């Protein structure tokens, strides 16, 4: 498991005084400012001095960033926090996405369906991107119904996927199958 957890990604500047947009991955988007200094993949440190909500993002001011040009230079920067700075979860059904990556996905019959390679969200809820043993990528909704039992310490997700989700596609259209 990674020692750094992705909390947000810097987007476009907001205005001309150095404010930035941040897409957050925290439960409460404004909580991104509560973790203290954040770092990027190059080890640079960023301190959020002010944050406010905006539609799908937050608008933030970073210490030392006071011009639109400085804010533009940060577009796309990923902001991380050390895992040990995160509070312990009291909810057994709450997981860090980073902890799900690499977990084996086991079907109802005990067969290995694949390994979680990513957790995606395109707006309708979290999806597990599962790499199957034959190299395909399958997206499965990450819900209690489809992933009823998760054991992070064993790196195992017991799944009850929708019928046919893991069936190989033979490449023919539905009309050609009839």
Task: Give short descriptive properties of this protein.
mainly beta, six-stranded mixed sheet, 3 helices, 178 residues, SH3 type barrels
CATH class (first level) name of the largest domain: Mainly Beta
Q: What quaternary form is this?
A: single chain
Classify the secondary structure makeup into a structural class: mainly beta
CATH topology label of the largest domain: Elongation Factor Tu (Ef-tu), domain 3
Return the domain count.
2
Number of helices: 3
Largest sheet geometry:
6 strands, mixed
User: For the CA atoms, what is the radius of gyration?
Assistant: 20 Å
Instruction: Tell me, rounded to a whole number, the average pLDDT.
Output: 88
Percentage of helical residues?
A: under 10%
In what range is the share of β-strand residues? 35-45%
CATH superfamily of the largest domain: RimM
Count of distinct strands: 13
Q: In order across it, which strands form the biggest sheet? A: 11-10-9-8-13-12
Shape: elongated
């Amino acid at each position: 498991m990674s020692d750094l957890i992705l909390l947000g990604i810097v987007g476009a500047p907001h205005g001309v005084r150095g404010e930035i947009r941040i897409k957050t991955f925290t439960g409460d988007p404004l909580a991104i400012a509560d973790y203290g200094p954040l770092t990027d993949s190059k080890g640079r440190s960023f301190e959020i001095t002010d944050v406010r909500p905006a539609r799908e993002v937050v608008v933030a001011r970073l210490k030392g960033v006071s011009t639109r040009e400085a804010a533009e230079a940060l577009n796309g920067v990923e902001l991380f926090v050390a895992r040990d700075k995160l509070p312990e979860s009291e909810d057994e059904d709450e997981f860090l996405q980073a902890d799900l990556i690499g977990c084996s996905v086991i079907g109802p019959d005990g067969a290995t369906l694949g390994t979680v390679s990513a957790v995606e969200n395109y707006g309708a809820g979290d999806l597990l991107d599962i790499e199957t043993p034959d190299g395909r990528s399958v997206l499965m909704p990450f819900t209690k119904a489809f992933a009823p039992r998760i054991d992070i310490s064993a790196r195992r997700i017991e799944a009850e996927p929708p019928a046919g989700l893991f069936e190989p596609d033979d490449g023919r259209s539905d009309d050609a199958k009839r």
